[in-house]
């Protein structure tokens, strides 16, 4: 009887630790599976930081080229079209390439713009290499093949296309080859092309208003959709003066008495679900550098007309230039003056007079004569009886093109050449408090002071002028022609485009804003990103993996939970059985056996 009582007690001693261990393992697995489910849900629902997309845009102007690099969230999660998403990463100006003719080693040519490479396309790779290498170092290597590279050529190449289409196209093809050999994304020829004047004007308008956050502020205040004919007084007008062309763009309200804008002078732009239809026009051949060529070609022909015998017999041909400071001179070759299509009319007149290959313009520094000569340039078409403007007189510009009346309640931003010329002009004027060299508000400068400077930069002797303007060998090429540049800019604004005194008070000359550098490239880039598909970063946990791991964890929780229930049930049942045995006297027998 004693042996029978001890036998179940021995089984109890051997099974209990195993059950306790299994229950501990089950509880641990249950807790781990529960924690795993929580982690799975967090991992699946949490979005990873989006990748960054990059794009490279080359602004190939008539006098230089600049590279702009932009970046934005690859998944376009914040939407495109605001500076909070499409940001300027960095800018790289391309340096000129030196070419030495083997047959004339003393002649050194500086190739500054892509139009200068028409006969030297083999040097284009060296021209682009430094900035492309900088982009390669600044953009993460794993993003190179996803980063498109673009080049937009402006008025300089539009003129080259008119002058020699074959050579201009060869330049573009050579650039495409350079880009295709780079690690960046280059897939279609349209990534390198010549922009139309309308595109350049519109993209500059978009860029400026985005940098000023006009679109962001407008749509934060007012969510309703505006009609095409509704005037937006918040948008600024943009004036852009380049080397070969000048652009005018502004939003416009059609008054009852106004003439409708012809289709060639406007376009519809959809931004933020709103359609804008600004007036825009690009005046080809009216950029600062081309205007100087036309001005001097007219001086040359006028001199030839009045002194034909002198120019026929003299070896050294000197022409007085009232827009050049007294005490300096410029030697100009016939090829550089008449190669441009902009001087085609003057070239025909010149060829009837002489076959000389170069001329020397002698500075005579006379502000009154300079002003009148530039006015005559603007009036050339108006005074040509063979040319008839097809628009009403009030809307017909100096170039016999259409321009509506300037709005009276919007601000204007003047870019590029406007800024650089006014920056040089402001060198000798008193600056207002809080002045920043990146922006000049016209209203901050008294008109008398501007008038004084316009005379001073023309009629100061060059030796004094050199010191007065803080000239150095590096900036002398930009400042020596300040007399012409200043008068041309001033008359272009006030006489040609028609800015009144009140209009000028709403004008700002700008180079950069806190949000980026002005120009057309940002507007161009935003348009391009509409065609670049969004790139979504894979989640840390895919849907199939999430479902599989979640199912496995739930099964594990269910099994461990059932195991714990079962073991608890058996333990309770066994305890209940002991209680029943106690009532029958087994407890005492067990205690006796243990004694």
TrEMBL record:
GO biological process: nucleoside diphosphate catabolic process
GO molecular function, one term: GDP phosphatase activity
Cellular component, GO, one term: plasma membrane
Annotated keywords: ATP-binding, Hydrolase, Membrane, Nucleotide-binding, Transmembrane, Transmembrane helix
Keyword check for Chloroplast: no
Active site, per annotation: 200 (proton acceptor)
Entry annotated with the keyword Transmembrane: yes
Transmembrane regions listed in the UniProt entry: 21-44, 546-572
Coiled-coil stretches noted in the UniProt entry, renumbered to this chain: none
Domain of life: Eukaryota
Family statement: Belongs to the GDA1/CD39 NTPase family.
This protein's name: Ectonucleoside triphosphate diphosphohydrolase 1
Lineage: Eukaryota, Metazoa, Spiralia, Gnathifera, Rotifera
């Amino acid at each position: 009887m004693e042996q029978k009582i001890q036998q179940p007690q021995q089984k109890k001693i051997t099974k209990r630790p195993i059950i306790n261990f299994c229950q501990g393992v089950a509880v641990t697995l249950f807790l781990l599976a529960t924690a795993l489910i929580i982690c799975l849900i967090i991992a699946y629902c949490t979005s990873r930081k989006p990748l960054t997309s990059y794009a490279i845009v080359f602004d190939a102007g008539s006098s230089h080229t600049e590279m702009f690099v932009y970046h934005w969230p690859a998944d376009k999660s914040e939407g495109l079209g605001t500076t909070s998403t499409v940001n300027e990463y960095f800018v790289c100006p391309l340096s000129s390439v030196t070419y030495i003719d083997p047959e004339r080693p003393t002649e050194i040519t500086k190739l500054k713009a892509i139009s200068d490479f028409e006969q030297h396309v083999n040097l284009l790779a060296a021209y682009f290499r430094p900035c492309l290498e900088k982009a390669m170092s600044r953009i993460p290597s794993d993003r190179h093949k996803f980063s498109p590279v673009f080049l937009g050529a402006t008025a300089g190449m539009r003129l080259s296309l008119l002058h020699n289409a074959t050579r201009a196209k060869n330049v573009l093809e050579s650039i495409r080859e350079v880009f295709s050999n780079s690690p960046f994304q280059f897939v279609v020829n349209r990534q390198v092309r010549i922009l139309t004047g309308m595109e350049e004007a519109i993209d500059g308008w978009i860029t400026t208003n985005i940098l000023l956050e006009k679109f962001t502020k407008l749509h934060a205040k007012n969510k309703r959709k505006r009609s095409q004919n509704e005037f937006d007084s918040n948008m600024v007008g943009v004036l852009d003066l380049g080397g070969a062309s000048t652009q005018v763009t502004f939003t416009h309200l059609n008054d009852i008495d106004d003439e409708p804008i012809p289709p060639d002078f406007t376009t519809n732009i959809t931004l933020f679900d709103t359609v804008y239809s600004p007036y825009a026009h690009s005046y080809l051949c009216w950029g600062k550098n081309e205007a100087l060529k036309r001005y001097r070609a007219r001086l040359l022909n006028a001199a030839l007309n009045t002194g034909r015998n002198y120019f026929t017999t003299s070896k050294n041909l000197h022409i007085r230039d009232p827009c050049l400071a007294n005490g300096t001179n410029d030697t100009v070759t016939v090829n550089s003056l008449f190669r441009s299509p902009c001087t085609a009319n003057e070239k025909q007149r010149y060829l009837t007079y002489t076959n000389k290959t170069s001329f020397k313009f002698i500075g005579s520094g006379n502000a009154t004569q300079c002003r009148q000569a530039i006015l005559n340039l603007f009036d050339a078409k108006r005074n040509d009886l063979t040319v008839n403007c097809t628009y009403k007189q009030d809307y017909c510009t100096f170039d016999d093109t259409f321009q509506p009346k300037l709005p009276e309640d919007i601000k204007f931003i003047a870019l590029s050449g406007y800024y650089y010329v006014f920056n040089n002009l402001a060198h000798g004027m008193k600056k207002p408090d809080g002045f920043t060299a990146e922006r000049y508000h016209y209203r901050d400068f008294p008109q008398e002071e501007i008038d004084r400077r316009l005379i001073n930069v023309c009629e100061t002797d060059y030796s004094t002028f050199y010191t007065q303007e803080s000239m150095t060998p590096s900036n002398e090429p930009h400042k020596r022609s300040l007399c012409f540049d200043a008068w041309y800019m001033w008359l272009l604004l006030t006489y040609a485009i028609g800015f009144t005194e009140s209009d000028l008070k709403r004008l700002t000359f700008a180079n950069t804003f806190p949000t980026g550098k002005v120009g057309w490239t940002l507007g161009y880039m935003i348009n391009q990103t509409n065609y670049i598909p969004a790139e979504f970063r894979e989640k840390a946990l895919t849907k199939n993996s999430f479902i599989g791991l979640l199912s496995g964890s739930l099964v594990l929780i269910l099994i461990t939970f059932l195991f714990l229930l079962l073991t608890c049930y058996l333990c309770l049942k066994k305890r209940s059985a002991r209680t029943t045995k106690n009532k029958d006297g087994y407890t005492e027998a067990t205690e006796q056996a243990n004694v």
